[in-house]
Amino acid sequence: MKFYVIMKKFFLIFITIILLASCENRDEKIQNAVSQELKGVLYDFESYEPIKTKIDSAFSSPYIDPEVKALMYSMTKPMQELENAKQEYKNALSSVALWDMPYSSSYSRQQRKDAIAKRDAAKLTIENNQAQLISVIKALYTRIKEDETSDDKFIGWFVTQRYRCKTGGGYPSFGDDVFVFNKDITECIFYMSCEEYDTLRNFVNQLLSIPEDEFLKKIEDVNLLDSL
Length: 228
Description:
This protein is of the alpha+beta class. The chain contains six helices and four strands.
């Protein structure tokens, strides 16, 4: 009986040591992996100093799907072009009205003609970028719904890292980033700043809250020219 008690105690101590060593090894590998990811991002990597690291298990989710992230990023350019085109469209409308005179000269007629051309070009840009954005949002909605209905699967480690570093001017700064590493911590499959990640989560949640039939109707009825 005494031998059994001793062996049981030894076994528990042994297992505890192995588990602690495993966690330390994992944490160290994750810190090294985070450093490698930030090496190509930070202006002054030599000043990089980890402050707080949180590690959780990562499961398949639309919030950390690289395809969802890529689709989100692909909206940046058309959204910027759309904003510029909306401003150009407004300016052109004002110019058309300005040069619409009852007794016009050849100069005013030419100015009005140029303004109309700018208005029509801006309108075409708005329509093209609107169509592009609608296409991306549809793809996003489909992908998010697929992720939501798929089984939760352990895919690796979800890491939030707060750190200190220096800016290009040498001033101290802080960063808060999100990383997802695969099970073996050999690959970073997802990376964003915490601010970007919060934006992605909010957008995904908004899309998830809309029933499919309502989403399809709303997206087809969108006309950004009506809002000008």
